[in-house]
Design goal:
Length: 392
């Protein structure tokens, strides 16, 4: 049927008769009882029924026309709304914010104070390098101006990170394995020359697992990349498989900025010496975990503030080493080691003794002093106190 091209008011006026239409009284009576219509009424009812067919077709045609008009108008409305949004975006106040202010806002959005002065049992945290929904990756998705500022003007946002196994059952959160190394390179590139605070953890593959052996090779590549940037290490927590220890020797003499180190080894660590931290002039906090009892781990103590060593009790084998640490560390405030031979005593803290060598946080009687008070160069006050944590 040919569509009507009448104006809307004429279309509505054409169907005004429907509102005023009413049944004749005899038809109304038939609708209120079950009496069959007479032959004459039957003829009239059929004629009336046929007379409604054409108006129904007409009104359906007009409705189709109006529906199409509504769809067309809604599409045009959406187009206008899009144009309006474009203009509002172009006039957005954030576009007039100088890059320097945006940079400062983004910098203050990230908390990095948790890296200052790590303690035993306290885990460093930073954005997961391989999760694009975290940290600067996420902030950079807000708009292009933020992305440009984050990429070029906020190196510190990229310099506090966690580097772990970049694989998960959720493909939306992690990259493909082949991309992981390149992603880490990009993060380090964007961190420029800013000091690095990071956590690197890898416990090694499950034996005879080809999948995990591949992951191990990939993590070794990531570890090598971090070692290549060792001159920028500042606050670091590393827990690695023993097979990674030879690589760690490459940082010796390359960690002048290192302030905090929490280092652990898992799965039967070797007894070989670990000389990686031997030259670290700014080292203040050193915490060792899981090391072999016979391993020699030299480090500078002139600036040392906190030291702990949780390796298994080695009798008197490490006593002189620990005494040398205390003797060489005038700034030492916290000292912790395993000594199964010293009984734990609950003694209230006492004020720091006058000698700067014993500026320890009070806790338990430091039995190692009483046992070796005659060692040359070690002056022991009547009541020497330190954090001598006796671990079972």
């Amino acid at each position: 049927m040919q569509r009507s091209h009448l104006p809307l008011d004429e279309i509505l006026a054409k169907h005004d008769w429907i509102s005023a239409f009413a049944h004749p009284p005899d038809v109304t009576s038939l609708l209120h009882d079950n009496v069959a219509p007479s032959p004459l009424q039957t003829t009239q009812l059929k004629a009336s029924l046929e007379g409604l067919e054409t108006p129904l077709v007409d009104i359906e045609s007009d409705l189709d026309l109006l529906r199409n008009a509504v769809v067309s108008l809604e599409a045009r409305r959406l187009r206008l709304q899009s144009l309006k949004n474009d203009y509002e975006t172009a006039l957005s106040p954030i576009r007039r914010v100088p890059s320097e202010i945006t940079m400062e806002i983004l910098r203050r959005s990230w908390k990095d104070d948790e890296y200052r002065g790590i303690r035993p049992g306290r885990r460093l945290t930073g954005f997961n390098v391989f999760r694009i929904r975290e940290g600067p990756w996420h902030l950079g998705q807000v708009c292009s101006s933020w992305r440009n500022v984050i990429k070029t003007l906020c190196p510190e946002l990229w310099a506090s990170m966690t580097v772990g196994i970049p694989f998960s059952f959720d493909p939306g959160k992690v990259p493909l394995k082949a991309d992981a190394v390149e992603i880490l390179r990009v993060v380090l590139e964007r961190s420029c020359n800013h000091p690095l605070d990071f956590n690197f953890t890898y416990y090694g593959p499950v034996p005879h697992s080809k999948v995990e052996e591949g992951e191990s090779q990939l993590m070794k590549q990531c570890f090598d990349i971090m070692i290549a940037h060792s001159r920028r290490w500042r606050a670091v927590e590393i827990t690695i498989h023993p097979s990674y220890l030879p690589r760690l020797s490459l940082i010796r003499g390359q960690i002048d900025l290192l302030r905090d180190m929490d280092f652990g080894c898992c799965r039967d660590p070797p007894s070989d010496d670990v000389r990686a931290f031997e030259i670290a002039p700014k080292l203040e906090n050193l915490h060792l975990k899981g090391m072999h009892r016979e391993a020699n781990i030299p480090f500078p103590a002139s600036n040392l503030v906190s030291f702990s060593d949780t390796r298994p009790f080695a009798g008197d084998q490490l006593t002189l080493t620990y005494l040398d640490v205390v003797k060489s560390a005038p700034k030492l405030l916290s000292f912790s080691y395993n000594d199964y031979g010293v009984q734990s005593l609950n003694i209230h803290p006492v004020p720091d003794p006058p000698s700067p060598c014993y500026g320890f946080i009070g806790g338990r009687t430091f039995g190692i002093f009483a046992k070796f008070s005659a060692q040359p160069g070690i002056t022991v006050p009547e009541e020497s106190h330190a954090n001598n944590h006796v671990r079972s």
